[in-house]
Structure formats: C-alpha cells, structure tokens
Amino acid sequence: MKTVALQWYVVAAVSALMLITAVIFAASHNRPVAVPAGGEHVAGPAAAKPKPIAVKPPEVVMKKPVDNFQKVDVMLRGYCYANSQFPDTQAPGGFGPSQNSAHKTPDKIDGKGLFLLAQPTEQTTFGGKPGMQVLLVNRTDETLKFAACDSRLSIIQQAQDADGTWLPIEYLPSSWCGNSYHHVFLKPENHWAFPAPRYQGHLPTKLRFTMTLEDGTQIHSNEFEGSVNLGQFTNKEGHQPTNIMDPYDE
C-alpha cells in the first residue's frame, strides 16, 4: 500500500510540474494584448500595475512662415484616418479601410507617453490644397488600441472663441452601420501622420487638436496661432449619401 501511495504522489507531482511549465511557456509566448488608450494602459494578461498616460506634447518651435492656409466658413468633418498595425479580430468586418500606415517615430520628435503633435508649418496636401500636419505618437511601452469608425479616429481641431473658450470647429459624423465600428492598433515608438487644414479667417485665435479616447479622456496637442471664421463654430459641412451603401448622412 505504501508503494502504491508513493507512486500516486510521484505521478501527481510530475503532472503538476508539467502543468506549471505549460502555463509559464504559454504566458511567455503570448503577444501582448493591446488595451484601450485611456487613463490606464496595461499590456499583457498579467501586468501588475496600470500605467498612467502622459498627455502633454513637446514644445514646438515654429519654422519660417509657410503659405499653407485655407479659408472655410463651416465645420469640416473629421479626416484623421489610420491603417491598423494589427487586425481587429473582434470586429464584425466590412468597415471602410485606410491606407494611412503608421511610421517609426524618429528620435528628433520629443515627448513621452501618448500625445498629439500639431505641426502648422509642416506643409502637406489636404483636399488638393496646401495644408499642415498632425501626428498621433505612441511613446509608451505598450501597443495601444483606439476606437475607429471606418478607420476614422476621434480627432478634431478646436479653436478659442472671442471669450477664450475652447470650442470644436470640426465634427465627427456618426454611421448607422454597425460594421463601421472597430479598433486600430499602434505599436510603441510609432506614429500616424495626418494631413490637416490650416485655417485662415477673420478671428485671430489659438488652435489645437483634440482626441477623445474610448474611456472619455481627452488629449490635446500643442497650441498654435491661427485664425478662423465664425461659421466654423456652428455650421456643419454636411454630407449627402452617395449610394445605399453610404452609412453617413451628416
């Protein structure tokens, strides 16, 4: 009986050791799971402590004047589209894709955490006209995920009105199609670059970019000088569906 009991204990101990080894192996070879980019960022199934996000962008030195201004009198629709670095395996599929891929962030771009970096004098092309650029930079240690609607991120420009209150001068249209909603992923030390309009109008003011994260947290870019028209605070650009597959009506 003692021999049988001893054999049973040996088998049980070996089985337990094999199970622990398998769990450790699986954990060490499991690619970290990207998590919502909100007030806390934790990658991996067993991260010990949530990490607070840094939301202050680096200071920007304005270059020599660049003629990349555009005059509008309405709130433009959001235009920051991103191509994910990982597939969203939870999305139903069928959302509008984007070809705007992420890039490795160069060392010359300063800053920590997740931040928006407005570059007013970085000339790009927006809507066939000269424009500026804004970057979404991931300087955290984690892969982050962001809610998207047909690959459009929740990034808009804001401006101060005559009283100094920050107000949106762009808007994010809603889709009635559930397939439009998904997530995009951004690896550490990478960024997306978005062409953007640099506005010119009758009201001299300060402007910035704002992103609303999935948990409701907002991050703001560096502020920059500019001017807008009053209609940009109230009048939406609007949109007419182009066909039955177009899920937007504003």
What is the gist of this entry?
This protein has one helix at residues 2-28, and strands at residues 35-36, 40-41, 51-52, 69-70, 76-77, 103-104, 113-126, 129-139, 144-149, 155-160, 166-168, 170-171, 181-186, 190-196, 198-199, 203-212, 218-220, 224-228. The chain is mainly beta and 250 residues long.
List keywords for this structure.
single chain; 250 residues; mainly beta; four-stranded antiparallel β-sheet; globular; disordered N terminus
Describe the 3D structure.
With 250 residues, this protein is mainly beta. It has one domain (35-233). 11% of the residues lie in helices and 35% in strands. It contains one helix and 18 strands. It has one helix at 2-28, and strands at residues 35-36, 40-41, 51-52, 69-70, 76-77, 103-104, 113-126, 129-139, 144-149, 155-160, 166-168, 170-171, 181-186, 190-196, 198-199, 203-212, 218-220, 224-228. Strands 10, 11, 16, 17 and 18 form a five-stranded antiparallel sheet that branches. It has a four-stranded antiparallel sheet with strand order 6-14-8-7, with no helix packed on it. Strand 10 (155-160) and strand 11 (166-168) form a beta hairpin. Mean pLDDT is 80; it is low at 1-52.
* Low-pLDDT ranges: 1-52
The class by helix and strand makeup works out as mainly beta
| Topology pattern, helix = H, strand = E | HEEEEEEEEEEEEEEEEEE
End-to-end separation in angstroms reads: 81 Å
* Secondary structure: number of strands: 18
Specify the overall morphology.
globular
